[in-house]
């Protein structure tokens, strides 16, 4: 009887070892498959987001990029990049105001890639003709503007992090030159409370302040749980995009940046991010911005 029990134990141990070896081989194959890393750019249909996708693909010959936006079929810039980088670019629908679309994107990424090494939240709104305009006085503040900017600029990016969190933990810095995965939320200097000397722009300014606080809070949790993730905020400067175009009149020429220049600077910060940078707020030139 004891001989039979020993035989069963040995069989179970051998089977367990085989399963562990299979699992190791599978994970190794998966890791090798994504050499160069997997990046997600949320809000990638135009402007800075589209430029991030372009530069990530052009500067990393092995890296894979997932680009999300509300209407992929109408994102002509992304579709052009898809024709050029068909094997390394994946485009998914995602609407920041509909959490189920974020969940679906996370599920698709899990099934196809299994991990993420970089998440860039690039979407944001400042003005919408006939709907939203930056307020110049308290008298022009209304609830709908506050709620809309908060939903898109603060709530949406945080929900994306929530659903991509397991993928970022799985990816860490593997396949990149970093030791950690990076979450980079595009904020703005006007979101800094300490730097607020002009006032105005109540909805946009406060939504970015909320994004900063939420990002900082998430970074504290990542550190406490020892996750291999650094969560940072980035100020791109005033960039020549559709978002800033109505407000460029008083911007000095040397302070109005091209998309190419700003994204190049921001990627340099991202690529050099270390775990000790978790929770920090950087301007495009690498200088820290006060909260």
From TrEMBL:
Pfam families: adh_short. This is Short-chain dehydrogenase/reductase SDR. One of its GO terms (cellular component) is cytoplasm. One of its GO terms (molecular function) is oxidoreductase activity.
